[in-house]
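Input:
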Amino acid sequence: MKIVFASGNEGKVKEVQAMLVGTGIEMVSLKSYSGVPEIVEDGTSFLANALKKARIIAEFTGETVLADDSGLLVNILNGEPGIYSSRYAGLGATDEENNAKLLTKLKNIPAEKRVASFQCVLVFYRKDGTFESFEGNWQGQIIDERRGDNGFGYDPIFWIPELKMTAAELPADIKNKVSHRGQAVAKFKSSLLMKR
Ligand code: IMP
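Output:
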């Protein structure tokens, strides 16, 4: 089965591609298309944004699509940056600028109050316009020090207490098993298997 992954985020593309190895799914990146329409993520939830990306890319490519909308929610900041995770420090902000903004907001907040979670909503959008969604949630806490070179986004400051590592210190195959995106993709894969 051919599926177009509706994201230009290379970090996500790499992860999802690795997660789908061995499933028989041929995952096509948006990079192989030119003239991809600009998508304004103006939804008020991860689901609304994932669905919007999926629908626009399905109409553009005429293919079955998988879209992911995800982000970091920090409890003491009432869920910030949430749906604004990729542009927390402004449109076009780098991962480091977003991390720096978050750490400034958390200045003087003690470790035990820096509880956070990554959330992911994955939408599987068929050519006939029907769709299904799958969710994943990964708990951790935000630390001041950047640790590790793997992953992307907020990974270097996302500490997983049980593993005593940040998400950026985890080898890619382990992150892909336990992460919010890993959980959502695992649910998607089981749903496909049940229908085969
Ligand atoms: P989206 O492309 O609008 O879904 O934005 C997702 C943003 O959330 C990314 O740009 C990152 O800032 C953050 N994010 C989502 N998943 C992860 C992850 O696995 N690690 C680190 N940051 C993530």
